[in-house]
Every structure is written in structure tokens, then in C-alpha cells.
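Q: Sequence in, structure out?
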Amino acid sequence: MSNSEAARTAALNGAVEGGRWVRITGLTSAAGQKLNGKVGQVLNTTPNEDGRLQVKIDGDTSSGKLIKEANITDVPRNELVKTCRLSARGEDSVLEHKVLLFPKDHSMFTNCNPKGDSPVMALCGLPLAVKQVNPYKDLSDFGATDNQRATYLMIDPITGFAPYQWQTKVGPVLVYRPDGLDLNFYDMVCVNTYFFEIIDLYAREPGTYDPMKWVNPTYFQRIVRRERDQSNWLAGKPKLDPDTTKKSLSREEDAYTIMANYHGSLEAVDCHTISTA
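A: Exactly. Output:
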């Protein structure tokens, strides 16, 4: 597999950046006991002469703690949540967004607004947190910090305009669900497609339209189903009946069945369901 193919696979399925995720355990000192159970990332691969690794602990502002290997355990894959990093224009990424993995009990999920940061998506029943992150490269060139998809996420539901600070010099962002559930690659495709469609609707004469006709769960669900059905058509599969789909979901989940086994130029992925609180 070439480097570009490996990068594409990681972007679709999820990767850990910055060091493997671990959980602190078994520390006995007074200070150490406060760290037990916390998650962090290992910043180096080789222990020092005392057998310790540098671990950047979630919520700690220091450069990291030196902890013995015996006092860390890897966070299992089933405890990692899929999030999506949207690239800035100047990053020249293999794909416009990629999946990154974080522990489900990370403070990014527990300390954020449960309604998320995207006003439109909150009204659509899918709260999304949107946080600016460090770029992979220098973005000093003109337009390099542009991130149209991040700007769209932050538009006002009535006017269709984003706040000024989200119009220019946005840079890359991390998008995730405040409830700590997965937001996979194709979920983000659906969200992007939804915004690309509705942004044109705001170009009409002000006062001649009602934005709430397209900023609601039903309209968003229609986009999701359309994208899913198109993927089924590409795969030669019959369309899923919406009523049957609804009956197969729990009461806590709306009928947001995303991208059933997406095919085409991308690798097939497992069916993923967006659930709403």
C-alpha cells in the first residue's frame, strides 16, 4: 500500500495523532492517585533510563508527566470515538476531512456545551461541537487559512451569515458530537452536503422566505436519506424503506441511518447510525 493509500484509509477509518491514548492506573502517591483513571497521550516511544514515558494528561496544562510503563494501559479501540478534522485550504490534505479518534471520556466531550457550537445543526437535532485546532503546516499564504465548510457550520439560522471571526482566518477545525458518539467520515459528508444545499437558499430576497423550512430535522433527514440511497444505488442495492428503518431504531434514535455500506471510489465502510438525544 502506498503512502497516499495508507493516508486515505486512515482518514476514512480513523487514526490517532500525537501519540497513543492511554489510561493512568496504579499510582500510589497522594499526587499520583489524583491522576488514576485519567486519559492521556504518550509523547515518546522509548522510556527514559528510569523506565518512564512522557504522558500528556487530559486537562493538564504542563508538557506532560513522566510515568512508568507499568502505570499506563492502552485505551481499547471500543472506547475511542470518531471525530472529524476539517482541513484548511492551505493544508493540501489527501481528503478534505479525516477521522481522528479520542477517548469517549475525554474532557472535550464532558466539558462542552451539550447543544454544540453549530446553531443550524442544533436545530436539526444533531448538535456538533466545532473547535479550531493547530494546522499541520504554515498557513501564512493568502487564503491558506480559509475553511469554507467550517464557516458554513457556524452560520446564523436566520441570516445565513457566520460571525466575522468564522469568515476569515478560520484554519482547521475538529468537529465532534458533544454526547461522545461517533461522527464518522460519511456522517460529515452528509453534513457538508446539507450545508452546500441550504446556503444557496439564503441568497433569495430577504423577507421572502422562512429559513426554518430547511433548518429542521426533517429537511436534514431528507438529505441524509438521499445520500444513503445514492450510495445504495452505486452498490446495486435496493433503497431502504424509511418506515422500516424508523421501526428498527430505538426511541432515542431518529431515522438518521447514514450511508449504508458506502461504495463507489471509496472503500466500503460499516453502516453507521446517528442517534439524537
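The radius of gyration is 21 Å.
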